Structures are given as structure tokens and as C-alpha cells.
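Lab meeting, item 3. Inverse folding demo.
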């Protein structure tokens, strides 16, 4: 199965985040509100029998991190220059807690010899992707719009993380939280 560990968003906040990008922006593959999340670790294909190991890594990570406030603000893109591939909103408050939580999840995965994308975490909320077949003009329009886009501040209390299964299909990915793990109540 294809897995990742993430911070899920409350449905009302996800709807507001999904509405940040103007509908007139061309050539975007927008992330459905129900799929919005902050990735802590991406494992990709993982044997079914390793799900308990992934869950245990998430449980260990969550046990030592207290609930915290997370606020999103400000739009951006990857890469910073040239043709944009990913459109996101950044984290205004709570980034250090997200990084700490991600580091703890990564340490737990590593200690269990699980394969995952072990690059440094750059916390953000992906709103859309620019497809490779988008024209240069469309990509430039997206890039220019992001320079002036005023993303409203969106905030919530992070109280849990999830081990999520991703199923890819022609209609787009479908994400299912297999396990949710509460953060510490310190």
C-alpha cells in the first residue's frame, strides 16, 4: 500500500483553504478539500505487513509532542523561480512544532528500517499542482498571480496525526486515514 504520515485538517478549514486560489487561474490540478493535509513523512509503497511498524512510529512521535496551534498564511510555489510545479500556503505559526513532530516520525520510521522520503521537512500546505502539459503562458499566469495573492490566515489546534493510505486513480488520489493518533495532552 502507498502510505504517508500527516496532520489532517478540520473539514471547515480545508474548505476555506481550497477556496484561496481564484477559480480563474488556469491549468491547475487543485487538491480536493478532503485531501488537504500537512505531510510529516512520505513512505510511498510499503508492504501491508509493515503497517503496524508505521503506526507504532506515529504513536511514539505523537506521545511526546503536545497539542499546538497551527496557522497558515502567505502563498508560495515550488520552485521559487521558473516554471511553478506546486502551489502552496505557508505556515505562519506552529512551524517548529510541525518540524519537531516530523523529525520524531522520521526517527521512528528510520529505527524500524522503513523506507521513506528522508529529505528535510519543508512544512507547507499544497493547494494545487501545475501539470507538465500546461502552456508557458498558463504557468506564467499562475506564477504572477501568486506574487499578489493575499492568503488569509487560517488556524486550528493540531490534536492528532494520521497514517494515511493513498490510492491513485485517473480521477485523482483518494486518501484514507487508516489510523489516527492523538498528540499528548501536556
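The presenter then showed the designed sequence:
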Amino acid at each position: 500500500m502507498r502510505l504517508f504520515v500527516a496532520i489532517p485538517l478540520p473539514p471547515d478549514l480545508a474548505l476555506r483553504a481550497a477556496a484561496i486560489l481564484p477559480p480563474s487561474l488556469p491549468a491547475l490540478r487543485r487538491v480536493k478539500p478532503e485531501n488537504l493535509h500537512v505531510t510529516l513523512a512520505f513512505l510511498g509503497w510499503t508492504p501491508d505487513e509493515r503497517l503496524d511498524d508505521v503506526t507504532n512510529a506515529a504513536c511514539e512521535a505523537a506521545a511526546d509532542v503536545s497539542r499546538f496551534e497551527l496557522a497558515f498564511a502567505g502563498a508560495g510555489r515550488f520552485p521559487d523561480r521558473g516554471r511553478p510545479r506546486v502551489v502552496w500556503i505557508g505556515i505562519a505559526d506552529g512551524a517548529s512544532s510541525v518540524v519537531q513532530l516530523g523529525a520524531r516520525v522520521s526517527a521512528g520510521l528510520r529505527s524500524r528500517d522503513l523506507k521513506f522520503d528522508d529529505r528535510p521537512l519543508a512544512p507547507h500546505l499544497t493547494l494545487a499542482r501545475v501539470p507538465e502539459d500546461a502552456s508557458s503562458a498558463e504557468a506564467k499566469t499562475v506564477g504572477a498571480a501568486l506574487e499578489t495573492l493575499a492568503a488569509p490566515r487560517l488556524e486550528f489546534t493540531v490534536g492528532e496525526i494520521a497514517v494515511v493510505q493513498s490510492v491513485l486513480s485517473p480521477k485523482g488520489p483518494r486518501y484514507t486515514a487508516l489510523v489516527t493518533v492523538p498528540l499528548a495532552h501536556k
